[in-house]
Amino acid sequence: MLDKKYNFTEKEKKWQDYWFDNDIYKFDKNSNKPIYSIDTPPPTINGHIHMGHLSSYTHIETVARHHRMKGENVYFPFGFDDNGLPTERYVEKIIKKRAYDLPRQKFIEICLDETKKLEDEFFDLYKSAGFSCNLKEHYSSISPNTQKISQKSFLDLLKKGYIYQDKAPSLWCTECQTACAQSELEDMEVESTFNYLKFYIAGKKEYVTVATTRPEMLCGVVCVFINPNDKKNAHLLKEKLVVPHFGFEVPVYADDLVSLDKGSGVVMCCTFGDNVDKEWQRKHNLPIKECFTSNGKMTVLAKEFEGMGIIACRKAIIEKLDEEDLLIKQEKITHTVSTHDRCGTPVEIEVKKQWFIDVLSHKKELYDAGMQLNWHPQNMRARYLNWVKIYRGIGALPVKDITVCLSLFGIAKSAEK
Ligand SMILES: [Zn+2]
Questions:
Q1: Domain 8-142 of CATH type 3.40.50.720
Q2: Fold annotation for 184-349
Q3: 158: which residues sit within 8 A by CB, 6+ positions away?
Q4: Ligand 1 centroid to 180 CA: how many Å?
Q5: How far is the CA of 125 from the centre of ligand 1 (A)?
């Protein structure tokens, strides 16, 4: 008989505790029933619990209960993603200090303490929502066990020759001081200026106009490009050009990536302003000149601007160029820049020693694995297959981009750290 007035706070608590204490949803390793296994996304421990966390688990919950009612042995694990940048940024905000201001071990201890507090909160909420995952045996992506699995998988890949270390241009966030995966980038519209600069022909009084949104990178210019079919500028191929303000000379090369109908048709190349610079550096074997330090300060190449922040230097150098009559004009523009989704800082391309995993040699296996799966909805298959087909990259993906591929190989998740 139901109470006249149903007290849900009392009744829900009673049954949730009963399920929990009696391991009602524990996965039975010894059962002969068919296994239905769910790869649950562990919520990220970064301080933001929102409706999305609960609503996404509601979908999974419906599927889990359906298969349990069909008599299957449902594996429905639960865990926390408490490892990596989102958690570190969260802790930095709480303690109002940056990780690099503290000894490494101290920061790790604070991270473990703070995440524990938040996890208890998350845990209670997931329990109170009545989810039937195996809450008692929850995992953590920073636990010694997970670290062991990651390291084992890393060494396994290394032994098989899939992993190598290389010094190569990588996406870099100067705020978080970490390499970024492509999936961590977010496009942002920003106001900027196109600066039209005078590049004098060495030994002559003539100049050509070069437009750039990044005058702070002039100290890192390695050459200038024109289009091979550009008759108007073809004579420059025999000349050298003088980089404004800095005064050093750079060669002029031809490359068909330079657009014939945009601006003056003369483009500066620095290592590295963007992905085209990256491609040019490889193709033409250009020297590498690093303009910025890991924390976004100008390097010694910037001479009197050394130590300045990127934006401050941009402003200062524009003033200098104007003073020296090397700035022809400025045009206000709005353009899209790639920013780091964790902090909104525009990402740079910096040369870093990193681990890489060779993925391109496995394109066929990745493609075939995608064909074998049943996709819901179906159109996600096409999206995945296109991603495998068109990815050219540089022959390998940074370790951070690799999680998806690893799980398709049946290898334990993310060997990131
Ligand atoms: Zn960042």
A1: no
A2: Isoleucyl-tRNA Synthetase; domain 2 (3.90.740)
A3: none
A4: 8
A5: 29
- Identify the three-state secondary structure at position 189: strand
Domains 8-142 and 184-349 share a fold: no
How far is the centre of ligand 1, averaged over its atoms, from the C-alpha of 342 (Å)? 5
Q: Which residues, 6 or more positions from 238, have their beta carbon under 8 angstroms from its beta carbon?
A: none
- CA–CA dist 298, 218 (Å, integer): 11
User: Measuring CA to CA, how many Å separate 347 from each of 172, 188, 200, 281?
Assistant: 6, 11, 31, 19
Distance 299 CA to ligand 1 centre (A): 20
Taking only the tens place, the pLDDT of each residue in 138-195 is 899 999 999 999 999 999 999 999 998 888 888 999 988 888 888 788 999 999 999 9
Calculate how far, in angstroms, residue 79's C-alpha sits from the geometric centre of ligand 1. 25
pTM of the model: 0.69
Q: Ligand 1 centre and the CA of 293: distance in Å?
A: 15
Q: How far is the CA of 90 from the centre of ligand 1 (A)?
A: 12
Q: Where are the domains of the chain?
A: 8-142, 143-162+358-417, 184-349
